[in-house]
Each structure stands twice: as structure tokens, then as C-alpha cells.
Amino acid sequence: MFTHCPGREKDIKVRYIKCPFCGTEVEFFSDEPKRRCPSCKKDVAYTEKDSCIYWCKVAKDCLMRF
Question: Domain of life, per the record (predicted)?
């Protein structure tokens, strides 16, 4: 059994996307599937395909644990 996400990158990358609700830029770290918009306070999902949730075979279990 693993104690941390096996797909997590060693070097965390920062990415920015626009909030689909208010247009504010939201900062995401490469190991986060969603963040709360600092402006409108709504949850914003990171949907780019380079996120580990799209390619890691244990992502579903991992997201439930961490």
C-alpha cells in the first residue's frame, strides 16, 4: 500500500486558469484537482489533461485518500 500519491511529481508546478464563474485567475499546483476561487469562492476544477487524474491508474483511489 502506498503512503503518498505515486503519480505526484517531485517538482510541483504552478499553473493558472481563469475561473469559469467570474474570470479571476486561479492558481493551481500540479497535484491539485480543484481549488476555491479567491474572488467568488466557488470551486474550480483543473481540467487540463496533464493532471495525474487522467493518466495515473490509481488516481481514483488516491483522490479518495488524499
Answer: Bacteria
Considering the entire predicted model, what is its pTM? 0.59
Q: Which domain holds residue 52?
A: 14-65
- C-alpha distances (whole Å) from 2 to each of 30, 53, 61, 62 are 19, 16, 11, 9
Q: Is residue 7 a part of any domain in this protein?
A: no
Average pLDDT per block of 10 residues along the chain, 66 residues long: 61 88 93 92 84 74 71
User: Which among 41, 40, 46, 11 is positioned nearest to 28, based on CA atoms?
Assistant: 46
